[in-house]
Amino acid sequence: MMQLYNSATRKKEEFKTHTPGHVEMYTCGPTVYHFAHIGNLRSYIMEDVLEKTLRYTGYDVNRVMNITDVGHLTSDADEGEDKMLKGAKRENKSVMDIAKFYTDAFFSDCEKLNIKTPDVVQPATGLIDDFIHMVEGLIAKDFAYFAGGNVYFDTSKLDRYYVFNDHNEEDLAVGVREGVEEDTNKRNKNDFVLWFTKSKFEDQALKWDSPWGVGYPGWHIECSGISLKYNGEYLDLHCGGIDNAFPHHTNEIAQTESFVGHEWCKQWFHVHHLNTTGGKMSKSKGEFLTVSLLEEKGYDPLVYRMFCLQSHYRKGLVFSWENLDNAVGTFNKLIGRIANLKPGDDVDQAVFDELKAKFVAALENDLNTAQAMTAVYDVLKAKTTDATKLAVLADYDYVLSLDLLAKAEAKRQENAKAAAAKTGGGYTIVGEGDPAIDALVMQRYEAKKAKNFAEADRIRDELKAQGIEIIDVAGGAQWKKI
Ligand code: AMP
Ligand code: ZN
Question: What is the average pLDDT across 95-116?
């Protein structure tokens, strides 16, 4: 049974779903005004591992994600300029062009990190009518009011305006409004905007007609509206980075539960930050690292994925080039060890099941990916056949998604080429990394050189019987399994 820390109760709990065996999962998606930095991607990597763990352990999952292409202001509270408009001005492009460009860039980064695309991906601008309908419903139930041109959620109408308060000061600071004039339309300090028609930034590019005038939705309403549409009224699991907890998730809970009239989501999963030595990595600071930059510097994006898996999602993770270089060393050694395993078909099912159980136990322990990575080394050390080890690693890799076997195969071929280059005598053998076969190919060459064609043919037949085909090429031979 999956034990998962729940930010809403601040406890590790058994994961339960509304419908047994089925998970309705929602993830706050990116604000597409800039490239995602590797901090954002830490959150998406860990959420991907969570989704895959649930599928791996037998759940059927419906995962929904929004794309924020309108309404997210430069502060997570209701102040500041629209982030999308800021991006468009910076690059002298239209808001829609900016959204398309950075949405594509986001999914291309995800692909490089083996992050699966959610079942439903919905840009906020595609569902404005649903948000308007929800705001109307909140007004009708007296949970929202119109003042000074905007519609606000009235937090005083709730018995408990839920605040996630288990995270540290640094994370909470995003919700605190400093040096910003107070919005005098608000009845209560925590009230938040559901629909804007008046903001200090009159040049808002995207606007829609609404019962309250031409304007645009607040940021929080999009996640509620999108989740209600695609996940239904009972959400099992809501994910995001820890900075989303307050005020964003707090406000999502307030408006959704008021709208549907019952508890909405039981389980909240928050990934802690990737920090640099200078503090939290953030897009607005302008100094951030992207997947493309890692690639430019010669790093395999999957090394970054492994770097994230090596530590727990509920702890801050410090990024430094030195730490990433250490991960490169670990990754290469791991691939090297897997490359030394000999493929075969003698899989020991009992050992396979035992090793799988170890891996599942690590993941079901509040997604302990560091422990799951240790299980990989336990496989390599296990007293069993190489075929069993390879089968287990292929199975683990559904969740880890590090391309372990494909990379090991590439490494084997690289080793074979390196070995072949050493064969000498001007005769180069390129094979699949099996020294015994290389030796037979070499014997055949020697036989041919000595004009002992019968012996050369005999060796060719012997190799054929083992399922090996030899192709004579200029300056040597190539062999492959057929
Ligand atoms: P945004 O595109 O800014 O809306 O953020 C996308 C996701 O990344 C959200 O779930 C954020 O909570 C998360 N996030 C932002 N900064 C970091 C960070 N430094 N480390 C981990 N996750 C982050
Ligand atoms: Zn959200």
Answer: 95
